[in-house]
Amino acid sequence: MARVFPWSPRSEEPVARGVIAGVIENPTYSIVVPAYNESARIPATLSRVIACLRFRGWLAEILVVNDGSTDRTTEVVNQFALQAPEVRLIQNPGNRGKGYSVRAGMLAAQGSILMFTDSDLSAPIEEADRLFDAIAAGADIAIGSRWLESGRQTHRQPLYRQFFGRCFNFVTRLVMGLPFADTQCGFKAFTREAAQTVFQLQTIEGWGFDPEILFIALKRGYCVKEVPVTWAHDERTRMRYLKDGVKMLKEMAIIRWNAITGHYDRKIRAVQAGSGNR
Fold first, then answer.
1. Is the separation of the CB atoms in 238 and 207 below 8 Å?
2. For residues 245 and 174, what is the distance between their CA atoms, to the nearest angstrom?
């Protein structure tokens, strides 16, 4: 399996900025939380994540990636970080999308095991143990699933959202050959090596980044384990299934085109060449 060398920003590539240096040194775990206009609920989210990691004794950092919020997200996270050395803030160069935010956080993370979770904690952070156990058992990547054991859903989506979600998942299976029951659950963990490889090759910045990183992972030969997790729908979700669903279908076409034209292979060679020159 070809590997990609450790990431470093390129001068011609826009990157997230304004990283507040974390106090946690050599963390075992990095938890990435993308955030857009989350000033109202991010304190509760961070409080729960910190309570969990301290109770479990995890040596962990929390990276909140602010995606160009227009509310007080930056101020709220900075204030929270004064009392919680685990928290770091990353500022995107404007509003770039969830995929860009997750990528920025994962490539800035310092842990040995890296994961990302949605800011609403639809999958409780306590479920991270299930992902970490799968990686400890040999998986390179562990992805949370709402549908492997649907009885674990404590608050189901409305029927129309379930319908669109299932339709999208069927299309991803058909078009991209992804064998997973749930590609879109925002609860995924990676070994550091797998994260460095996959997120350097990622090109999709919007909602459709999940199928791309899974597609890349399988093409690079990584072991991806799907893990059932407890999950509750949050009515405040910002995803618009019709508009965003159409965009995600277009993004899947881009992913297939990238694979056919060798875009990912060329990017690997460019990264490896750049690493060899350092």
1. no
2. 16
CA 78 to chain centre: 22
Q: Three-state DSSP class for 143?
A: strand
- In a 13 Å sphere around the CA of 204, the CA atoms on its Cβ side amount to 24
Per-residue pLDDT reduced to its tens digit, 47-99: 999 999 999 999 999 999 999 999 999 999 999 999 999 999 999 999 999 99
Q: For residue range 187-210, what is the model confidence (pLDDT) as tens digits?
A: 999 999 999 999 999 999 987 899
134: tokens are 């799968």
CA neighbours within 13 Å on the CB side: how many for 261? 8
Q: What is the residue-wise DSSP string for 168-235?
A: HHHHHHHHH----S-S--SEEEEEHHHHHHHHHH----STTHHHHHHHHHHHTT--EEEEE--EE--T
Tokens of 38: 């989350």
Among 1-10, 137-146, 168-177, 219-228, name the one with the lowest average pLDDT. Answer: 1-10
The C-alpha torsion from 84 through 129 and 214 to 19, rounded to 10°, is: 10
- CA distance from start to end of the chain: 23
